[in-house]
Amino acid sequence: LIMASSRPKRCTAGNRMQELLDTLPPTDEFFSSTYGGFTEEQDDTDYKYVDEGKDEFDSDFGSTSDEESDAQQDDEEELDLEEERKKKKFEFKRHLHLSSLQKKAQPSTAPSEEVTSPPSKKKKPESNFFTTQTFDKQLRNSTLRKSELSAERRQKVAQSTIKRQKRVTNYQPLTLEQMLEEAKLTELENQESLKRFHEMELEKKQKQNQPKKVKLEGSRIRTTSVAVPIPLKYLDKQIHPFYNPDKMVTPRAYSATVSSLHTPQIHVKTVIEFSNAETYQNIFSRFSNKPTIEKPKRCVVYGLPAKYIDPLTRQPYCNMQAFRLIREKYAEYVKQLKNVNSANESVSSA
Hints:
By secondary structure, the chain is mainly α. Among the domains are: 98 residues, no CATH class; 29 residues; 68 residues, no CATH class; 37 residues, no CATH class. The chain has a two-stranded antiparallel ribbon with strand order 1-2. Strands 3-4 form a two-stranded antiparallel sheet. The longest helix has 44 residues. The N and C termini lie far apart (154 Å). About 9% of the residues have low confidence.
């Protein structure tokens, strides 16, 4: 380190570094293409500021516009941060590449004593032109692709911002009459949409109120009534005014006479259908069996038809005399039972 600092500077110092710097492109496409270039124009006629005055916002719609503007600002800030990150990353890679090339270009210096020697022809060192060129080309191609893609993206963003600015500049505030006309149109649209909404709600309610079809399972009875013409055999021959026993009545003559009298020509025929035989038997079994007729009750004393029944002995009787005789017999029967019970008790105690 002492010898390197004390020796004089070489006349060829930095020539290789200068050659490498000359091989690099003079201007980078990334910085010249992003946002249409960083060059400033003196007379920029694309954008002009227009004082539109204070804006009047409705309280119902102010919150939504503020939220939209905040979201746009957040998107723009994220895009700016991404640009800065990519720019720093590119600068860092470039710095690393240049530093690696600079280290390769510096020769390895060994400590040697200062000895005056006659001037001799210096051998030209072997250049690392091929290695540096290939590495530089590979790195440059990848960076160029990335820079082109980013440039296209930035250009689209710039064009969209310019379009927005142009729209803002061409905006003209509406007059009071125009605002009233627009309000009338919106009122009509709102009324139509409200009408459609009410119709949809009515349809929903009607569908909900409609009875749902339920499939019944099990036994069922179905009745069908059909209107049929009255047959001639069921005609009441004695009541009918056109009845003649000697002359046969044909259907045509019968229908003609009935129509002339304005009497009904049809009658109702009802048919009952059962789903199975069990229901039919359960319903009509009581009608198939003949009812049992009870025999008239007679007095146990006189044998006459009984009108009354003794509530104590449940025996029928016809008059008061028969009732007294039944009660006397019943009292004797009770005394006999008591005597028998007392005799049984005495025998059991003995």
